[in-house]
Amino acid sequence: MSGGSESVGRPLLQARLEDAVAGCEKGMVMALSFLTPLERRRAEILLRQRGAWEQAWFWGGYEDAERATLFLLPDYLLTCLSGPLHQCRAEELCALLEEWISEEVCALRITGSKFRTLTHRDYLGAILHLGLERDALGDIAVQNDHAAILFCTPTVATFLTEHLQKAANDAVRCSRCVLDESFTDGRSYRPISDTVASARLDCVVAALINASREAAQTAIRAGRVEVEYEVVERTDLVLTPPTVLSIRGHGRYILRAFDGTTAKGRLRLRADQLI
What we know:
With about 280 residues, the protein is of the alpha+beta class. The chain has helices at about 10-25, 35-50, 75-80, 90-95, 100-105, 120-130, 155-165, 200-210, 215-220; strands at about 30-35, 55-60, 70, 105-110, 135-145, 145-150, 165, 170, 175, 190-195, 225, 230, 245, 250-260, 265-275. A six-stranded antiparallel β-sheet has the order 10-15-14-13-11-12.
């Protein structure tokens, strides 16, 4: 069962999950694609409440995909695994669920003419211009200046193969592909090292954006800061790494660790900014 491509607000997500859990209890493999990181967090909460979390697995076409399909496995498939679902390797799960994955997730290579550099924004803009919604798509992993791999459903892949001909005025072509060792998720990071007075959100945000603590507090109270994809307005929230932070106007960061303290008792912060 495909989850479709409609926008998933909290009430709709809960309704879809309830349907999926009911189907799984009847012995069917159920799937909802593609969920954002925030939707995945909310899905986990709901599934834990329903006692179905141990049957849930997210797969977006590669490990660590941000946008991923949720698969719910019935009891008879769980008995085929080498151990608890969340401890199994992706290779084992992909082999077991190959039939169902092939109906929900595929890789589509988009290749340009090599006369101009194409970015993630170029690919996404061209695809959305064709009328598709963002939630109908998985990740777009840029491979080099002239190619990217999009993860989507087979139906979307067929549509794009037929209709996607240009991206940022560059001619492109699409073809289904199988990932090999050359695949990269396309993410680049800028390392950040600093010291902070404490693990409070306002201290960390100030360090990440190289601003005063007062400026960081203003941004937080204005709703411009997300922690794990949720808007947080508490300046005194204590962070525990690893944590994803999004700061409007500055970008996304991963707080990696607090590596001990300085002689003056300040925390050594280590983070990465997604660029």
